[in-house]
Every structure is written in structure tokens, then in C-alpha cells.
Specification:
Radius of gyration: 22 Å
Number of helices: 8
Strand content: under 5%
Shape: globular
Number of strands: 2
Largest sheet: 2 strands, antiparallel
Length: 207
């Protein structure tokens, strides 16, 4: 600013090198580790000696986030009227003008069925989840299993990774995640996974 205003002759910042922004390492649990975490979270009511119920809404919320890729804020805003037979109308937390459609996969359908079974009689305006976050249950389950810490947002990465490993193209995954850039961000974050998948697919190619 001083150089541009003519207060100093030379800009001392020209000799400084621009710092490179390094992307953090993703901590994505394997499918086996995730199943163990989920099983451990379901045990929490029994481990805690709760006599009222052995059901764990936290475990269902963990599974819901992992199998849907929803952000925690999106899951909090879901009401039963948003969930149809084949798809979910996901509330848009960043731009209130539109929603996105997420089609329900088999694993997600099982979680929704469990939630409906435990939350009978709810109207279309009632929230799907009564809790704010399953963060504590997720952290405690990881600790008891001796696994690295898994954040709530890592469940979203788990969903995206599972989709790519299943052969789903990145633009489609990005659409399901609610990205509006056509897949540019997903390519930066998950592009190496797509390359690994393509490499393995090439090994199976025969003529």
C-alpha cells in the first residue's frame, strides 16, 4: 500500500515467497473400522447402564451422516416431510433459495426405517433428529476402540470416498454433496481416489 501510494521507492514484500497452502490429510475410516465404530456407538446405552432404552439415536445419526453425505446442519434441519420413499429433499443451509435431491441408497433406507420405528407418530413437520450432534458418541467409540479421532465432517468424506470407490463419477458425487461447482472441489479433494480407482479398474481390463 505504501509503495503504491508513492511513500516508499521500492516494495520490500517483492522478495518474500508466497506460502503454499497445504491441504490437510483426510482421516477417513475404513469400512471395517466404520462398522466397528457404529457397533460400539450402538452399545453405548448398555455400557452406560441406561435402563430406559437400549436404543442409540446417536448411532443412527452417525450412520445417517455416513450413508447420506449430509452436513450436520442439513441433518439438524431435516423434518419427516423432507423424506420420501426414494429420495430426500435436503434443506440448503448456504443458499436459502433452493434444495437438492438425494436418492436413498439401501444402507440409508435401513437407518431411516430404524428412526421411524423408534420415533413413531411424528408428523411431517417434526424434526427427524432430536439431538444436535452425535460428536460425543463418535469420539467415545473411537477412543474405546483405540482408533484415530473421527470428526463429524469425516463422515461426509467417508460417504464421498465410498461413492468413488463404487465407481460413481465425481460430478455425480459432487451433486449429491451439494457442491455447485460441477465437481471442481471434489476433484481437488478426492481426485487421487478416482485415479487409484481408475488404476485398479485398468488392471481388470482384458481384450
Amino acid at each position: 500500500m505504501l509503495h503504491e501510494a508513492g511513500c516508499i521507492k521500492s516494495n520490500p514484500a517483492t522478495k518474500l515467497e508466497r506460502m503454499r497452502v497445504q491441504q490437510g490429510t483426510l482421516n477417513i475410516p475404513s469400512r471395517d473400522d466404520f462398522r466397528r465404530i457404529l457397533e460400539e456407538a450402538r452399545k453405548a446405552p448398555l455400557l452406560g447402564g441406561w435402563k430406559k432404552s437400549s436404543y442409540s439415536e446417536a448411532a443412527d445419526m452417525i450412520a445417517f451422516l455416513a450413508y447420506s453425505g449430509l452436513r450436520i446442519e442439513e441433518a439438524r434441519r431435516l423434518v419427516w416431510g423432507d423424506i420420501g420413499k426414494e429420495s430426500i429433499s435436503v434443506p440448503d443451509i448456504k443458499h436459502a433459495t433452493s434444495r437438492r435431491t438425494l436418492y436413498i441408497n439401501a444402507s440409508l433406507a435401513n437407518v431411516i426405517e430404524s428412526l421411524r420405528r423408534e420415533r413413531r407418530g411424528n408428523s411431517s413437520d417434526d424434526p427427524v433428529f432430536t439431538m444436535e450432534s452425535p460428536r460425543k458418541a463418535l469420539t467415545n467409540a473411537s477412543i474405546r476402540l483405540g482408533l484415530p479421532h473421527v470428526r463429524i465432517h469425516d463422515l461426509r468424506h467417508f460417504f464421498a470416498t465410498s461413492c468413488i470407490e463404487a465407481g460413481i463419477n465425481i460430478p455425480t458425487v459432487a451433486k449429491w454433496l451439494g457442491h455447485r461447482d460441477g465437481g471442481a472441489l471434489a476433484m481437488r479433494v478426492y481426485g487421487h481416489l478416482r485415479d487409484e480407482h481408475s488404476k485398479e479398474a485398468a488392471k481388470r481390463l482384458t481384450f
